[in-house]
Amino acid sequence: MKCSLTKPPGFLLILLGLFIAMNAYSQVSKIEKKIVKSIDNNSNTALEFLKEVVNINSGTLNLKGVKQVGDKFSEEYQKLGFEVKWVPGESFGRAGHLVATKLSPKGPKILMIGHLDTVFELDSPFQKYTMANDSMMHGPGALDMKGGNVIMLLALQALSENKLLDDLSIMVFLVGDEELSGEPLALSKKELIEAGKWADIAIGYEDGDGTSENANISRRGSADWTLTVKGVAAHSSQIFQKDIGAGAIFETSRILNEFYLELSKEENLTFNPGIIIGGNQAEFDPKSNTGKAFGKNNIVSQDVIVRGDMRAVSREQLLRARNIMQNILKNNYPNTSANIDFGDDGYPPMTMNEGNKHLLEIFSKASQDLGFGQVFPVNPRNSGAADISFVADDVEMAIDGMGLSGTGGHTIEETANIKFLPIEAKRSAVLLYRLSKLNL
To answer: Could you give the 3-state DSSP secondary structure of residue 137?
Structure first.
């Protein structure tokens, strides 16, 4: 008599998945299993804490609210024996930053980066969390990035409970103005840059691309530019005459078109003119991002102002693009002139390097050993600027995008998958434990 397998293929796939997960989990050490257990025991408390801080408005310009969220995290880190300080933000027009430090003579120095502020100010209709179901939290900053901040805390609590923090020097840096940086940027990011010079490894807990399968080991920087073009004002009937020339608007069109022709094919580089104002007279107010122009359809334009940004994957790429843009300005139409101001360097790029690749390998191995699957690098073309970029050049290894999974960041549809809160904390805690064994 022949015996046939009657279970459906889907059942076999489930069994196979369970077998793979159990086999992977066997690679986790006894100490790491204790870390996992601590996170399981503390996850409900962490979730309640996340709900509490999400319900506190901390829009960047709500200085009181940002400080209030910082105070909540400060209390939790003090319980873990961290030395906590608040970096005042008066000099750059923001609330400030929270820094929690626990030093050790052993192990690498690790900088863990998050931010306290959100894009939702006091006048936003989006102020409190709601639960769409048992997994999805719809709330301001739940994804970006109070969820990431709680992942950090939950992971460090587990290490503390298992007496493992003595093998690491940890600095937690929770920025107060990530969503709308204070000015000057040199003061806004001063303490963070100094922290990067102290650290060996930097780990950022932004939400990345919103999935758990990917992490950032490269991010493009973001820098602004302002193009100012001058022409000779005259009646339109005189345009192209030797003493009049082409006017400011034609010259601006030439410049922008050549920017496109020369730079649009550069891999991982983008540039964009976001606003343009032109006419006989043009004015722009950078504080309100508004402008005005005066002119007529029968006047050769005298003034044009263009404001834009540029995103590059390395400092070398940024400088090369700037040089090309400057050279394009030199080939001006008759009786026109142009100047381009790049201002400061804005958010620097986080350039991919061998150290970052190695850190991703360690993290991916921890994730697989825990049964959560491999982790892949995010295409830098899909990665915006982040605070980790200010320290990436100074550390041996850097990784970002370690926050919660979710969708709708920066919109009133922002939603975080809270089922990933303990998963991400476990992956981070085991990563930190394994990094404590590295000799840097």
So the answer is: strand
Give residue for tokens 């690749």: 357
Answer for the pair 233, 209: CB distance below 8 angstroms, yes or no.
no
Q: Judge if the upstream peptide bond of residue 377 is cis by omega within 30 degrees of 0.
A: no
Residues of the chain falling short of pLDDT 70 = 1-26
158 and 42 in contact (C-beta within 8 Å)? yes
Q: Are 186 and 343 in contact (CB under 8 A)?
A: no
Q: How many residues are there in the chain?
A: 440
Tokens 């739940």: give the residue. 142
Rounded CA gap, 403 and 204, in Å? 8
CB 239 within 8 A of CB 300: yes
At 193 the pLDDT is 98
- pLDDT (0 to 100) of residue 4: 39
Query: Is the preceding peptide bond at 145 cis, omega within 30 degrees of 0?
Result: yes
pLDDT, tens digit (0-9, with 9 covering 90-100), for 380-439: 888 777 899 999 999 999 999 999 999 999 999 999 999 999 999 999 999 999 999 987
Separation CA 375–CA 213 (nearest Å): 5
Enclosing H/E stretch for 429: helix 420-435
| pTM of full prediction above 0.70 | yes
Return d(Cα 435, Cα 422) in angstroms, integer: 20
The side-by-side arrangement of strands in the sheet containing 397-399 is 83-88, 96-102, 169-175, 109-115, 201-204, 397-399
C-alpha to C-alpha distance for 240 and 349, rounded to whole angstroms: 43
What SS3 state is found at 4? coil
Collapsed DSSP state (helix, strand, coil) of residue 208: coil
Through-space distance between the first and last CA atoms of the chain, rounded to whole angstroms: 65
Question: How much is the pLDDT for 23?
Answer: 55
What integer pLDDT is reported at residue 438 of this predicted model? 87
For 63, 177, 346, the CA distances from 187, given in Å and listed in that order, are 17, 12, 12
Per-residue exposure over 97-107, b if at least 16 CB sit within 10 Å of its own CB, e if not: bbbbbbeeeeb
Of the candidates 359, 326, 360, the residue with the CA atom closest to the CA atom of residue 340? 326
